Structures are given as structure tokens and as C-alpha cells.
């Protein structure tokens, strides 16, 4: 049975009991509309912890676009059934007033890694992520937190945050889970029309082609330019960014001396897709 808890105080009591018994607590922070990517995080959490909390909170502070917040898919009953099937101990699903009570006045800002790409195209997004993640770590007191590498920049922001603020939660990045045709799983995929869904795998396909070209010696600018054109030709409306970056600092990379990552965001109809791969 997965217990649903909505208040921070009830969660604190539950976790205190677990900790008295010596349990290691793992948390998977999510915004719900769970898919196999989230469930793979919950399974990894189950392997690496004694007790597992999945949080579901559609965090208004990280949405720079009110329409995106309004249209974000929500289905708690279905999510709960999936978590029960996976043996998750607690679903922590607080309301907005529990997370941001009257008078709430704090904000966590991580500079550097949060600034390019998602930070540039979604102003304020990572302040919202960093603030809510800090709160979720405080509320769950988890020793380990499991994040999907699909949001590579988010993982770097959260890693920086826990180091800088001495938060005793170890971040465990987990591989992106993909559909058979390569499309990275995302809660936003359900908003694609059938025609858009058919086009969507082009993003990952062209990223792979660019990564192979760069590994083969093609100059990054040329490889990325060709990939950008191919993504647009496939039917995407725009490519916000398609960048080769240092995997950790997220500075622009011009060579492969250090681990590098290709990261992209592109719009398909009304849906914004992001993806990243190792080069
Ligand atoms: O990746 C997400 O779903 C969200 O950004 C997170 C980490 C749950 C914070 O709201």
C-alpha cells in the first residue's frame, strides 16, 4: 500500500519513525503524469534505499509560461496506482499552500550552470526548481534523491545546489528512458498530436547523427548547423538551442578533451521537447 501524505508535518513524523529504525530514505521528486522514466527512478530508489518517497507537486514557481502550467497533465489517481504497483512507500502530494504558504518570501538561485539554455529560454525556471527541490529535501529528509538525466541541466543545477548549501542528500542521476523510436519519455509527450508524435523522434535521431559527425572529426558548428536544418525539415517549428557543452560546467565545448554533451530544446506544435546525449 502506498500511503498518500499531503502535509509536511505528517511526512516529518513518518520519516522520523523510519529513521529511528535506521532506514535510508530515498526520494524521487516529480510533477506527476508518471511514465516509465519516472518508474525507473522509483525502482532505482527501491534498490538503493530502505524506504521510498515519490513526490508529486506541479510547481508553479518553475513555470515561466502560465499556459504551460495550465496545460501540464495531471492524473493523481493513475499515478498512485502505478506507484502502488511498484511498492513505493509514500506518495507526498502537497497542495500549493503547503509548499508556498502565505508570506513565503524566499528564493534559491544557483548561478553559472543554470544560466544558459533552459535558463536563457525559460527565465526564472531554475530559481523555481532550486527553491522547490531545496524545500522537498528539507521536507523529506532523504539521504538519496533520484533524478532523470533527460533533464541534464537540472541535474547539474541540483548537484551544485547540494554542494554549495551542504545539503546532506546524495544526488543519483539515472539514464534517460526512451520509446522504441528513440523519443525521450516526458510527461509532455501526451500533448503531441499523432502527426507530431511521428515527427518527434527526429530530434534524437539528428542529435545522434551530429554527435557521430563530431566524434568523426567534423567541426561542431558544421555538425550542429546540419542537425538544426534537418530537425526543422522534419517538421519542428523551431530549434531553441542545440549546443555542444562541457558535461559538468555546461560551458560551450569546442573540442572533446573533456566529457561533452549535446543538449537541445525544440518546439513541435505547442509542445517544447528537450533532449541530451553524450558525445
Ligand atoms: O523534473 C521535474 O519534474 C521537476 O523539475 C522537479 C525536479 C520535480 C522539481 O519540481
Description:
The longest helix has 16 residues, at 125-140. The protein folds into two domains: 3-174, HUPs (Rossmann fold); 187-278, Pantoate-beta-alanine ligase, C-terminal domain (Pantoate--beta-alanine Ligase, Chain: A,domain 2), CATH 3.30.1300.10. Strands 1-4-3-2-5-6 form a six-stranded parallel beta sheet, with helices on both faces. The protein has a three-stranded antiparallel beta sheet with strand order 7-8-9, with helices on one face. The chain has helices at residues 8-20, 36-48, 66-71, 76-85, 96-99, 118-121, 125-140, 152-164, 194-199, 202-215, 220-234; strands at 3-5, 25-30, 51-56, 90-92, 144-148, 170-174, 238-246, 260-268, 271-278. It starts with a strand and ends with a strand. With 279 residues, it is α/β, with parallel strands linked by helices. Pantoate is lined by residues 29-31, 59, 62, 129, 132-133, 151, 154. Pantoate (PAF) binds at residues 29-31, 59, 62, 129, 132-133, 151, 154. Belongs to the pantothenate synthetase family. Its EC number is 6.3.2.1. One of its GO terms (molecular function) is ligase activity.
Keyphrases for this structure?
41% helix, Pantoate--beta-alanine Ligase, Chain: A,domain 2, binds pantoate, 279 residues, 2 domains, globular, Rossmann fold, 6-stranded parallel beta sheet, 3-stranded antiparallel beta sheet, 11 helices, alpha/beta
Structure summarized in a few sentences:
The protein is built from 11 helices and 9 strands.
Mean pLDDT: 97
Compute the number of strand runs. Answer: 9
Please write the CATH class name of the largest domain.
Alpha Beta
**Total tally of structural domains:** 2
Helical content, roughly?
40-55%
Gyration radius, rounded: 19 Å
CATH superfamily of the largest domain: HUPs
Helix-strand string: EHEHEHHEHHHEHEHHHEEE
Terminal CA distance:
42 Å
